[in-house]
């Protein structure tokens, strides 16, 4: 038979207990409970602490790692089961459907001016240590690199005249040859794209993207890539002679 702890070492109407649960390793230490709480009322409080369901949870009482008893009588008072501090209430339940309603949580908000005046903020730390956008030298260097890359993209795009033969090299794909069929922007996307009709069916489309046609070719013969991936030159069409295969 389970042991019921009846040690009256305090005249206080409260006890403190640690609270654990079967969902994770979290333990809430020294939580104060009134001794005259019914077990049903206790479960309602444990629902808030652990996220379990008061209607389905089982509450076990532990002394150290030893199970003392299960608080099974919902009408009994907590003081009937435990009358000293330092015990552990362990909640066993199915926590799979637990959700936390963030709408009920009071939010702490600051205006931009208030945040600017704080000395313990991330922004203050970045400023004091000249990091990120607050490092003017680094920011200028990044801007220079961005402009240089944009200029190189434009230079390479200017070489991709429609009708030119080209070779396309994209990381993770074999080098492909084809003909430049389009040079410009794509609807809904940023930057310049080069549309290529490949010599072999090594592409991804028929010259269309998201339902809009930019040029026409057979399925899987078309593709759109960055100008940086395209080299224009005298690249004859590759031929594959099956008679050479052994």
What does this structure look like?
- The protein is of the alpha+beta class and 246 residues long.
- It folds into three domains: 14-92, Phosphatidylinositol 3-kinase Catalytic Subunit, Chain A, domain 1 (Ubiquitin-like (UB roll), Roll); 108-157, no CATH class; 160-232, Roll (SH3 type barrels).
- The chain has five helices and twelve strands.
- The strands form three sheets. Strands 2-1-5-3-4 form a five-stranded mixed beta sheet. A five-stranded antiparallel beta sheet has the order 11-8-7-6-12.
- Residues 1-10 have low confidence and may be disordered.
- InterPro entries: CAP-Gly_dom_sf, CAP-Gly_domain, TBCB_Ubl, Ubiquitin-like_dom, Ubiquitin-like_domsf.
- Residues 184-226 form the CAP-Gly domain.
Please summarize what this structure is:
Residues 184-226 form the CAP-Gly domain. The protein is an alpha+beta fold and 246 residues long.
Which helices and strands, and how do they pair?
Layout: E1 14-21, E2 27-34, H1 39-50, E3 58-63, E4 66-70, H2 78-81, E5 87-92, H3 112-117, H4 122-128, H5 136-159, E6 165-168, E7 176-184, E8 193-198, E9 208-209, E10 212-213, E11 222-225, E12 230-232
Parallel strand pairs: 1-5
Antiparallel strand pairs: 1-2, 3-4, 3-5, 6-7, 6-12, 7-8, 8-11, 9-10
CATH topology of the largest domain: Ubiquitin-like (UB roll)
Helix content: 10-25%
Strand content: 25-35%
**Separation, N- and C-terminal Cα atoms:** 84 Å
* Overall average residue pLDDT: 84
Unreliable runs: 1-10
Biggest sheet statistics: 5 strands, mixed
Give the CATH level 1 class of the largest domain.
Answer: Alpha Beta
* Strand line-up in the sheet with most strands: 2-1-5-3-4
Q: How many separate helices? A: 5
* CATH architecture verdict of the largest domain: Roll
Task: Compute the number of structural domains.
Answer: 3
Shape: elongated
Helix- and strand-based class? alpha+beta
Q: Radius of gyration, Cα only, in angstroms?
A: 35 Å
The CATH superfamily of the largest domain bears the name Phosphatidylinositol 3-kinase Catalytic Subunit, Chain A, domain 1
Order of helices and strands: EEHEEHEHHHEEEEEEE
Number of strands: 12
Pfam families: CAP_GLY, Ubiquitin_2
Keywords: Chaperone, Cytoplasm
GO molecular function: alpha-tubulin binding; microtubule plus-end binding
GO biological process, one term: tubulin complex assembly
